[in-house]
Amino acid sequence: MSNDSLDKEIEDALNGVDLQALGARPEDDSPSAGGKRRSKSDDLMPGTVSGISGDDVVIDLGPRMQGICALTEFDEPPAVGQEFRFMNRGRDDDDLWILSLRGAKDLEVWEQLEVGSHTKARVTGQNQGGLTLKIGGNEAFMPMSQVSIQRDVDASSLLGETIVCEVMEIDRSRNRVLLSRRRVEEGERMVALSEAVGNLTPGSKVKGKVTRIEAFGAFVNIGHGVEGLVHVSQISRQRVEKVDEVLKVGQDVDAMILEIKEGGKKISLGMKQLEPDPWDEVPHRLSVDSQITGKVTRLMDFGAFVEVMPGIEGLLHVSQISTERIQNISRVLNVGQEVTVRVSAVDPGSQRISLTRLDARGAMIGSEDAVDNADIQAAMNPSAKPLGTNLGDLFKKALENKK
């Protein structure tokens, strides 16, 4: 969230909420004799324990000056001579100063607050804009967008809870403190992410669950809040046109880590790397001059890609589509169309296959000329096996086909 949008959200959330009035005391903003605004720490008084009387602790504040503080405000009964700082609450009927140890601790916490620091706060209420909280005895506010990184969190479930927050804004002159629990959670998640990413290395195999599907790929949670992206080109050895036809949200998948960037903020995953590589079979199944029937998968200006084996495509260059010059490939071929092609070159190392629809003599495969030329070539080859025909028969057959 940008600073401008956050400021707007905060102002909207604080509409009708008077933070200054929530916990302010009349003397908090009163000017001192010098005309300067008093600091809350001006209310703190050093004192020494002189004894315990019933439920009160007697405190020496100076020559002929004593006060009392409730024993319940101490974690354990204090020893005579211990020194503390107290909040001055006024005088009682016996002209003794009424002191508060807890109030002093609250003021010390207040004075130590800084933007970006973490503090504990108790959730005391909820309104349309967010949550009201107390840091000791001081009021604070948390906009609803800062309650959690989870969008569907029930803010009311935090009522009465003491939570760790980050100080977003503090204005002591207005008694205004804005808190964020979301930023604390984000920090914790980054620490957990860093630890989890530290155990990941490119090339390692992971298990995950598909969390989101986009046109360009699928996001996969691989554990500990770490997500990676399987690009559409990395899903399968076979061409994938639509991700949602292959993967579904919630599906368990196995993947390989391909790349880790920006400390784990960007993790690239691949699924096809765990599949058998079809190129290993290419030398055994395809050879130069062999004919094969394939399916057109893509049309480009320079030619068409034809799938000749599952996951294996070859390029049928525009010059090899027909004996005639082709201006517009889409008028000759269509995606999904089955075509018979001849392998003109195979390079498994570069994973390239060149295809042609022309035979070795330049005739269209499947045409009458192509059949006759093949027969003639076989008849003229001395090492060829007898075909049960002769050259005269072939010429006669050719003349009959042309009538």
From TrEMBL:
Region described as Disordered: spans on this chain: 15-52
Entry GO MF terms: mRNA binding; structural constituent of ribosome
Any one cellular-component term (Gene Ontology): cytosolic small ribosomal subunit
UniProt keyword list: Ribonucleoprotein, Ribosomal protein
Gene3D superfamilies per record: Nucleic acid-binding proteins
Keyword Isomerase: no
InterPro entries, A to Z: NA-bd_OB-fold, Ribos_protein_bS1-like, Ribosomal_protein_S1-like, S1_domain
One BP term from GO: translation
Ranges of residues in domain S1 motif: 116-182, 203-272, 289-358
Functional summary from the UniProt entry: Binds mRNA; thus facilitating recognition of the initiation point. It is needed to translate mRNA with a short Shine-Dalgarno (SD) purine-rich sequence.
Family in the record: Belongs to the bacterial ribosomal protein bS1 family.
Protein name in the entry: 30S ribosomal protein S1
